[in-house]
Specification:
Number of strands: 26
Radius of gyration: 21 Å
Helix content: 10-25%
CATH architecture of the largest domain: Beta Barrel
Strand content: 25-35%
Number of domains: 3
CATH superfamily of the largest domain: Acid Proteases
Distance between the termini: 55 Å
């Protein structure tokens, strides 16, 4: 296994979280007010005994400050501390800075499984930066060290080793789309896929761009042999996925070449809501979206794109976006207490709490059920709990929900999901290159 520097230009466990949002049947009452940072209570600083736990909670900046305060020799001689430091830098989206740190940790680690975990982190960082050759090398080594990856995902990485993904638009190129939200409150834009006109959901909660099996056949997606894996949607229902490549994808005035995609069964991409069926042939996911800055004007139904180079150092003092397990999370507060991590999901109608976030924030749960049913992918449905009078703080704003649904998921590491019911109140700027979400009052 070569330890050469990766091509700085970037994730999948045995189960791949797709993150396509569900449609919620009830719109909660929402109010918005400015929230100065001074009104948010910060948690105490981490230390030697809880740094890993605080990392899991999403306190990445605080853990980074703690690790950088250690004597140089203490950090440099500890595989555990170096591994944690490298993972913090990966969470910030900075694979260029994380790579030498994780390589040093890898050289010190003697336990095969721990070494495999470090190699998997390196592979995820390389995927985030579109370096699939380096990602494949690290993933293969992780498997040899006992880390559990499905063979299909490794075949996917191998197939993209020499592919210049997302080629076409130069850095700085701008484009725009008018979008519609129909009755489902999701951003839907016109696209052209290998010469075929369609419409796509813009879904920052989906790991990759996703197409249905029938649509993949119709538009001649280049399928990658032996790339079978499994996916899991909002309600934990699993379904098979394969990987492929769209030769040419047009949107916003761009023509983007060689777009990696997941291919899912048609029934897994069909929303069943009380307002009717909502088939989705294609979803534009995070791995594509990170190549751009997105300005979303919900009141005017306009989406402005700017091509950016994601593969740059991440040092913004305003950073509030963080990357973990292939998804993008935004840092926020709950009832003026920090800090919590929310999945940033433009493909979800509702803004939600998870039962994990509810517990961490010490929020009581109502005995009522709200909404009675939430319908989503694959004809699945579930009853969720409800909490009342909750304020989510995000990007300088306090968004108070009279009622908020709680997703019962004790295995989630996210505290909640930021969906349309919050985002539509604002003019939204998602700057992936700087890892910053900015909100301006949309009223």
């Amino acid at each position: 296994m070569s330890s050469k520097a990766p091509r700085v230009r970037g994730w999948a466990a045995a189960v791949l979280l797709l993150g396509v949002g569900a449609a919620c049947t009830v719109a909660p009452a929402v109010s918005v007010a400015p929230l100065p940072a001074s009104r948010v209570k910060a948690p105490p600083p981490p230390g030697a005994f809880n740094a890993e736990e605080r990392f899991q909670r999403g306190h990445y900046l605080e853990v980074q400050r703690y690790l950088e305060s250690l004597p140089e020799g203490e950090l440099a001689k500890s595989a555990a501390n170096l591994s944690l430091y490298g993972r913090v830098l990966l969470a910030r989206g900075d694979f260029g800075s994380a790579w030498p740190v994780l390589e040093h940790a890898r050289s010190l680690e003697t336990r095969p499984l721990r070494r495999g975990e470090i190699e998997w982190a390196l592979s995820q960082g390389a995927i985030l930066w579109d370096d699939f050759a380096t990602a494949e090398e690290y993933a293969a080594s992780a498997i040899r060290n006992g880390f559990g990856l499905v063979p299909g995902f490794l075949h996917f990485l191998t197939a993209l080793r020499d592919v210049d993904v997302y080629a076409g638009p130069p850095v700085g190129a701008e484009g725009s789309d008018a979008f519609e939200m129909q009755g489902f409150q999701l951003i839907r834009i016109p696209v052209r896929v290998n010469g075929n006109d369609s419409a796509a959901i813009v879904d920052s909660g989906a790991v990759y761009t996703i197409v249905t099996q029938s649509f993949a056949r119709e538009v001649h997606v280049r399928m990658i042999p032996d790339s079978r894996a499994s996916g899991r949607g909002l309600h934990k229902r699993e379904f098979p996925v394969d990987f492929g490549v769209i030769g040419e994808l047009s949107f916003g005035g761009y023509v983007v070449r060689d777009v990696p995609v997941m291919v899912m069964p048609d029934e897994a991409m069909l929303f069943e809501t009380l307002r009717g069926q909502f088939p989705v042939p294609i979803v534009l996911g995070l791995h594509l979206l990170k190549e751009f800055t997105l300005e979303i004007d919900y009141p005017s139904r306009r989406l402005h794109w700017t091509r950016k180079d994601f593969r740059t150092p991440k040092r913004s003092p305003d950073q509030n976006l963080f990357y973990r397990s292939g998804r993008m999370f935004v840092r926020g507060s709950i009832d003026h207490n920090g800090y919590y991590q929310f999945l940033l999901d433009t493909g979800s109608e509702p803004t939600l709490m998870t039962s994990v976030g509810q517990f961490r924030a010490n929020l009581p749960q109502s005995s009522k059920v709200f909404p009675k049913k939430v319908y989503g992918l694959g004809h699945s449905q579930v009853e969720w709990g409800r909490i009342s009078d909750v304020t989510i703080g995000l990007s300088g704003w306090a968004v108070r929900f009279q009622d908020l649904a709680v997703k019962d998921d004790d295995t989630a590491f996210e505290d909640g999901i930021i969906g349309t019911t919050l985002l539509e109140r604002f003019h939204v700027l998602i700057d992936f290159a700087r890892m910053v979400l900015s909100l301006e009052d949309g009223r």
